[in-house]
């Protein structure tokens, strides 16, 4: 089956037609302290390599629409080489002790901390989020390495008492083998380490396909992993855009690969899961969300507004766990809306490198178009624009927007907006709002604000999501079981996520 190439990326790379100026040297565009962290080649079997075709992908800074640099446009042949390299490296890496892998991961973690300035700068340059947000992401990203280093040494088996007197049952944990990792652009670093950290800790070897929009963070991380002592072939990176269909297919269908881990849209997740089913591979999927955010009449409104700001507008609304539908009880609706508008009006959109900027651009103009479509659709159905409502012409920026009285049939209520658009709807009863919140095919995260202990339990239990934020708009941490239910995914990452990279083997001892 040949996939439409563009379907395999979470969002599409839109080559801007305006303001595109080629920089004479990539290093000048990045301005890093350590230029050796800028890698413009892919990584296979311990070698930095170009595509066989010599074709490249142009990577654009979404804030300026300037080209940052290029990475190779790889295809099927390079993907097979990467998978072969991971297979060759597996026997040695899987034989290392858990303590050895712990030590390598801790070294990698420390290198990420030491290079915080450069790594954060890379994130801002290729993703657009502010430097403060990028520093937050680098810390979050590194914390997965620390967490999984500590998990590596605790991959205990079990003893299961047998009903038979001369039989003993034990289980041991073993790495699943070669793992394919496919990641999104919204967290160019953290989505790599959340998967890679677990895979390395478990003793697996890997092939990573980073997003074409943000490959440089991934490549810099691989360079640090190499310096930390990860052997050749244990991590391989294949960069691709137009050949993503054949690359993705091989990463899912190869008999050598034993597991696929993907974060991205539900549509792509279904394609990858279908392809992976051909060899009954293990899959971990973190797919789209459409998070409800509920403010009850007994909520602390200041806390609810602060929660909405972080939950809705973090990374300019481009996280899978962002609030997409904000339901507010009618008795506090006007107060919540006006306080939220006051705070959002103070945002300063701009280049994430500027100190005054509070919110950066969207990843590209296609993302801007989608937000505009959601606004226009809701307004056509009767929603009111309280703030914003328009993109900034000829750019990847969208003005932070608040819509009120968004009707149930609006597209926002069915699709992830992935942008800085807060869609407010009034409700009257707990029963009504739970029904509205659960009326979606996905179930990643959900949030609510209430001080009533009975309601807190009832609502937390009734929300059909994998993760609930109760009186908080920020749930993300390395230690939590991150993942959704319904069409939001399969399996958990972070927290207990090392299990997804391990097979449990039963050994029955008889004749004792
Ligand atoms: C995501 O958007 O996929 C991840 C968000 C997070 O880890 O906070």
Spatial order of strands in the largest sheet: 14-15-16-13-12-18-19
Are there runs of 5+ residues with pLDDT below 50, and where? 1-24
How far is it from the N-terminal to the C-terminal residue, by CA? 53 Å
3D shape: globular
Rounded to an integer in angstroms, the radius of gyration calculated over CA atoms is: 23 Å
The helix-and-strand class reads alpha/beta
Q: How many E-type strands?
A: 22
Chain-averaged pLDDT: 94
Tally the helices: what do you get? 14
Fraction of residues in helix: 25-40%
How large a portion of the residues is in β-strands, by DSSP E? 15-25%
- Assembly annotation: single chain
Reported for the largest beta sheet, the result is: 7 strands, mixed
Summarize the structure.
By secondary structure, this protein is of the alpha/beta class. Helix content is 37%, strand content 20%.
Question: What does the model show?
Answer:
By secondary structure, the protein is α/β, with parallel strands linked by helices. Helices cover 37% and strands 20% of the residues. The strands form six sheets. The chain has a seven-stranded mixed sheet with strand order 14-15-16-13-12-18-19, sandwiched between helices. A hairpin with a 6-residue loop joins strand 3 and strand 4 (67-72). Helix 3 crosses helix 7 (215-228) and helix 8 packs across helix 9. The termini are far apart. Bound molecules: succinic acid. Succinic acid (SIN) binds next to loops. Succinic acid (SIN) binds at residues 186-187, 263, 286, 319-321, 476.
């Amino acid at each position: 089956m040949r996939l439409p190439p563009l379907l395999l990326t979470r969002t599409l790379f839109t080559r801007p037609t305006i303001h595109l100026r080629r920089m004479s040297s990539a290093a000048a565009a990045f301005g890093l302290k350590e230029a050796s962290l800028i890698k413009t080649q892919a990584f296979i079997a311990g070698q930095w390599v170009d595509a066989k075709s010599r074709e490249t992908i142009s990577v654009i800074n979404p804030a300026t629409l300037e080209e940052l640099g290029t990475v190779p446009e790889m295809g099927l042949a390079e993907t097979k080489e990467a998978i072969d390299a991971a297979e060759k490296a597996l026997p040695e890496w899987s034989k290392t002790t858990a303590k050895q892998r712990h030590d390598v991961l801790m070294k990698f973690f420390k290198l990420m901390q030491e290079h915080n300035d450069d790594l954060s700068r890379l994130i801002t340059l290729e993703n657009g989020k502010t430097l403060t947000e990028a520093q937050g992401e680098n810390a979050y990203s590194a914390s997965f390495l620390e967490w999984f280093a500590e998990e590596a040494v605790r991959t205990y088996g079990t003893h299961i008492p047998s009903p038979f007197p001369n039989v003993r049952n034990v289980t041991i944990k073993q790495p699943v083998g070669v793992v394919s990792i496919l990641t999104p652009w919204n967290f160019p670093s953290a989505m790599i380490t959340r998967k890679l950290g677990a895979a390395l800790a478990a003793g697996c070897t890997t092939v990573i396909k980073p997003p074409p929009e943000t490959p440089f963070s991934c490549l810099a991380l691989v360079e640090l992993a190499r310096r930390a002592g990860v052997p050749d072939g244990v991590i391989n990176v294949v960069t691709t855009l137009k050949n993503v269909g054949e690359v993705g297919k091989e990463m899912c269908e190869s008999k050598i690969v034993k597991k696929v881990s993907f974060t991205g849209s539900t549509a792509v997740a279904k394609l990858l899961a279908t392809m992976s089913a051909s060899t009954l591979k293990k899959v971990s999927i973190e797919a789209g969300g459409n998070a409800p955010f509920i403010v009850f009449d007994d909520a602390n409104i200041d806390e609810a507004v602060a929660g909405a700001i972080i939950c809705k507008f973090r990374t300019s609304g481009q996280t899978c766990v962002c609030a997409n539908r904000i339901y507010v009880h009618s008795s506090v609706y006007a107060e919540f809306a006006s306080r939220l508008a006051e705070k959002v009006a103070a945002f300063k959109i701009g280049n994430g490198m500027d100190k005054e900027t509070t919110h950066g651009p969207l990843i590209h103009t296609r993302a801007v178009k989608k937000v505009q479509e959601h606004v226009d659709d809701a307004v056509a159905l009767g929603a009111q624009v309280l703030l914003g409502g328009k993109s900034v012409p000829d750019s990847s920026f969208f003005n932070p927007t608040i819509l009120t009285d968004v009707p149930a049939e609006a597209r926002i209520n069915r699709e992830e907006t992935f942008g800085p658009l807060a869609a407010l709807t009034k409700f009257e009863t707990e029963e009504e709002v739970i029904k509205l919140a659960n009326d979606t095919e996905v179930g990643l995260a959900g949030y609510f604000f209430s001080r009533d202990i009975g309601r807190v339990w009832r609502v937390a239990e009734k929300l059909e999501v994998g993760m609930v934020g109760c009186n908080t708009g920020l749930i993300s941490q390395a230690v939590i079981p991150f993942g959704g239910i319904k069409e939001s995914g399969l399996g958990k990452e972070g927290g207990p996520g090392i299990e997804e990279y391990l097979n449990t083997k039963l050994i029955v001892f008889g004749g004792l």
